[in-house]
Amino acid sequence: MSTSASKQLLIAASLANLPFGTIYAFSVLLKPMESALSLQRADMTLVFGLASIVLTAGMNIAPSLYRHLSIPRLITAASLVAATGLALTAVAESKIGLIFSYSVLFGLGGGIVFTSVQQLVNQFDFPNRGLINGYVVSLYPLGAMFGAPLMGWSIESIGLRQTLGLLAAVIGCSGVFASFLIRHTAKQSRQHKHPAMAPERMTQWPLFLRLSAVFTLAASAGLMVMSQAAGIMQAYGAGLGSALGATTLITAAIAAARIGGGWLIDRFALPHVMAAAQLWALCGAVLLSLWPSAQSALPGLAMIGMGYGLISGASAGAIAQAWPQSAFGLVASRLYIGWCLAAICLPVIAAGLYDASGNYRHAVLIAGAVNLLAMGLALRLPSLGKKAA
146-189, pLDDT tens digit by residue? Predict the structure, then answer.
């Protein structure tokens, strides 16, 4: 694959997935949406949890769809569905309307695009496939890194509903343009092949189940941070501006960790990478538990989130090493069922504990226990042999 075609493909992947990363900046919407629709924190967390479920459903639907429909067309259609969902979110007047527009339509479109992009990228022979896959999965937190401050500023400047309308337009336009670049790249590269025309089957179930267990536990703690970072920072005493800035830094750290996890899996054994990632996250939970303050909240939350980011990047790289290229999307989409389970577990529990007590102290303790369990399971994973790209 030529350098020019590689760059174009990665640009297309970035355009397709970056705007959907604003789902990880959901914490910026918490207080404005609660005020606009008279909702509680648990209501908003339910919206996020359902969006995660539908997002995962979209990820798992995608392998069936891209066997019958070209990936560029699929990305265009899914992006427009998601854009329609956000446009309806902008005019929603109730929790039910919010669930249908944001959780269902936006979540479904995002899930289909995410898996389709991953499958597409893995049909080309990139060197350092762990690093490339780490970059692709980093696009969501990168989208949140850029989206959180922009959305916060826009909400203050022009209002919540107008901001959601603009985001809908961005998602629709970026998806269409990404599809155009993918078609152009396919014409340039003779290595391009249609992904997985024959149905693929899941294999290596013992490895998959162990990998899924570690991934799910790490994701539960990481998603608690990503979905409620601004709210957690404010609960520990930070002002609104500081909380928004912290959300940007935390998502940047998670994005870097995802890329780093992919890079590490190209060089070190899987159990060592994943156990070290969860040890790092555990240290963050301990820091925040022993010294609860606005000053310790930023590094503590960043460390918990980075533990998940490293696991996420390393998991994508591990799939690229252990399964055939044509099965990447199928295996990855099944792994993300764990992401869905994680999104409706600890984040929802944390929100309920916050509504009951007004703080996140117990939620952080639970996150630390989850990180410790994940570290123990990670050490029982097998080492993977390096496969040629």
Answer: 888 899 899 999 999 999 999 999 999 999 999 999 988 877 66
Supply 232's token pair. Answer: 């957690």
- Residue 229's closest CA among 168, 141, 139? 141
Cα separation, 343 vs 356, in Å, equals 20
CA dist., res. 185 & res. 271, Å (int): 36
Q: What is the DSSP string of 90-138?
A: HT--SHHHHIIIIIIIIHHHHHHHHHHHHHHHTTS--SSHHHHHHHHHH
Specify the pTM. 0.83
pLDDT digits (tens, 9 = 90+) for 120-132: 998 887 888 899 9
Report DSSP letters for 302-341, one per residue.
HHHHHHHHHHHHHHHHHHHHHS-GGGHHHHHHHHHHHHHH
- CA–CA gap between residue 55 and residue 226 (Å, rounded): 16
Provide the residue type at 87 as one letter.
A
Which tens digit of pLDDT belongs to each residue from 314-335? Answer: 999 999 999 988 889 999 999 9
CA dist 123 and 160 (Å) reads 40
